[in-house]
Amino acid sequence: MKINRKSVFLILTLTLSALGMSVIDGFVQLPYLFKSILKIFLFSVVPLGYFLRYKDEYSRLKRLFVPRKSDVKFAFLLGVGVYSVILFAYVFLKDQIDLSSIRESLTANMGVNEHNFVYVAIYISFVNSLLEEFFFRGFAFLILKENTGRLFAYVFSALLFALYHVGMTSGWFHWSIHLLAMAGLFTGGCIFNYLNEKSENIYPSWLVHMFANFAINTVGFILFGLI
């Protein structure tokens, strides 16, 4: 692992932004709109500040948003598979999960309910997934990898991705299922990193992430009695 001023700045920026957002999601009772605005700031404006400080990295930033058509087909098929696996896990584990407490937590902590869930689902699927892919895979992996090394960037970005979700999902599951979910998020983060490492952009993982969110939103529609 390379240690220099730039890599330390990157690691601190990433850690404070992700864990700060996790605390806001899990323990600060704000309307969902305000939390979304804070997330946009932490996951896009803060990273862009890094590129303003280190202008030599700007060409790498542009490369994150240049798609390659050859990667889309495989990512689409993988996304369909991820959607199926998540729904299967829901069907298999739903009797072990207190679904009513999850619904109540979403309403009490985030203001999400059956009346606004359609809009929230659209935001989560398309905008939120893009924010997270830019932050965790573009910023915390592809950019970090060039400054610290491949192995560290793989582990750090995937671990940060899993830890970020701890606050959001706190109290939703029995601890054993929660650990399983965190392990799945870590593994998913590594897979997303692999997809993007090949393409050098964030589009493959974004596509798979969207399908994962489609599955989670399908469960959400069931929770709120919309389907």
Please give a quick description of this structure.
82% of the residues lie in helices and 0% in strands. It is mainly alpha-helical and 227 residues long. Helix 1 packs antiparallel against helix 2, helix 1 (5-27) runs antiparallel to helix 6 (117-148) and helix 1 (5-27) runs parallel beside helix 7 (150-169).
Description of the molecule:
This protein has helices at residues 5-27, 32-53, 58-63, 69-93, 99-110, 117-148, 150-169, 175-199, 203-223. Helix content is 82%, strand content 0%. It is an all-alpha fold. The radius of gyration is 17 Å and the shape is globular.
Structural Rg: 17 Å
Report strand %: under 5%
Domain count: 1
What is the 3D form? globular
List the secondary-structure elements in sequence, H or E: HHHHHHHHH
Specify the biggest β-sheet.
Answer: none
Structural class: mainly alpha
What key phrases describe this protein's structure?
227 residues; mainly alpha; 9 helices; 82% helix; 0% strand
Give the helix/strand layout:
Layout: H1 5-27, H2 32-53, H3 58-63, H4 69-93, H5 99-110, H6 117-148, H7 150-169, H8 175-199, H9 203-223
Helix pairs in contact: 1-2, 1-6, 1-7, 2-6, 4-9, 6-7, 6-8, 6-9, 7-8, 8-9
